Amino acid sequence: MDSIVVQGGGPLSGTIPISGAKNTCLKLMCAALLTDEPVTLTNVPRLSDITTLAHLLETLGVEVALLQDGRVMVLSAREITNRKADYDIVRKLRASFNVLGPLLAREHDAVVSLPGGCAIGARKVDLHLKALETLGATVELREGYVHASAPGGLKGAEIDFPFVSVGATENALTAAVLAQGTTVIRNAAQEPDTADLALCLTQMGAKIDGIGTSTLTIEGVDRLHGCTHEVIADRIETGTFMMAPLIAGGEVTLKGARRDLMNRFCETIEAAGAEIDAVDGGLTVRRSNGPLTAVDVRTEPYPGFPTDLQAQLMAAMCTARGTSRLEETIFENRFMHAPELIRMGARIDVHGGTAEVTGVERLRGAPVMATDLRASVSLILAGLAAEGETRVSRVYHLDRGYEQLVRKLEGVGARIERVAEDG
Ligand SMILES: CC(=O)N[C@H]1[C@@H](OP(=O)(O)OP(=O)(O)OC[C@H]2O[C@@H](n3ccc(=O)[nH]c3=O)[C@H](O)[C@@H]2O)O[C@H](CO)[C@@H](O)[C@@H]1O
Ligand SMILES: C=C(OP(=O)(O)O)C(=O)O
Hints:
Enolpyruvate_Tfrase_sf, UDP-n-acetylglucosamine1-carboxyvinyl-transferase, Chain, 24 strands, binds phosphoenolpyruvate, single chain
């Protein structure tokens, strides 16, 4: 198993290309199950999560072809040959549970293992199942699998989510597009990933109103067709790399980054001392003079501050002036980076869903380990300006969601390398 070793150093400078969004691409891939015509995705990020989901889709009968060095993916679900998504693959990533809606909509029958994904909370799927039941499916849980069927097809209905769930909104949406009649989804996720999925579905012939808002109205159609769709820029990767010059100093340009996908995040880091400029085809980020200033944050569904950037902000707050209060409201176990940052000299107090971070002059490198994707990257960010060496193990988490992380950071002058665990 590899580790990533970072030597704390000086200012960063240069350009980092931003990849297509993991969480968008995964849901677009699931949507390809809805049609017997090819769906072509461009700007596909090269990540292990993408490979894992492609493999799952292949087990269902989808032909997956990669072109242009993996940047373009053509998915052809001409015939679904298997309606069972196996535990061995589904346990590896949360997004694979999103084959359920499309399988049920097209085949009227599906068996999908309960999912895995980052261990950041209980992550139930009750809202997904309730929504599909509202659309007329019969759902049973047996031996770790969801058995769902709707012999006469799904029927449009009103779905009122009690709170926002990205995955449940997307499963309901991809089921409703082929249901008979009208579906209204209230309290729907407004995340750019969900909106991009809805846009792709409309290109496939779906009828959806209210894209990007909290109420989606879907008029079911008999069939969908193929399309070509470009995956939007990864706002979480963008936010992660924005933190690098804020922590280590310098100025970095993020090519392909879009501020309109992450306004709240940008406003927050500007309040902390970031300067962000729009440049041709991207964003430039630098720290104003002096250390960052502590800011308080509460994670919320979009358009609020994203939970997927909370760990990275915490890394920056470790050396900010003052005390920052970070409240995590989405997941109940998403401070696993805190004890590791403390090992690097950070002052962090966690009480339930709130972490208080009091800035220190400097962190010190240490061997650290994280148990989820964003926690892992926060330790790399912290290492960029820490005194000495930081060794982050269990990097397979990073491979799930960051394409060429080492190369991208090296390209702006970070002293970072990937080594075999015993190397
Ligand atoms: C692959 C993917 O797109 N992952 C993202 C997605 O995860 P995911 O879709 O799993 O996140 P949700 O929005 O569904 O989860 C929000 C909250 O609702 C709870 N919940 C969810 C569904 C359900 O049926 N019952 C229930 O109780 C979850 O445990 C969590 O506490 O959105 C999260 C919130 O922006 C992001 O952090 C993840 O990166
Ligand atoms: C939590 C994440 O992924 P997943 O939902 O696949 O666990 C993430 O991308 O930060």
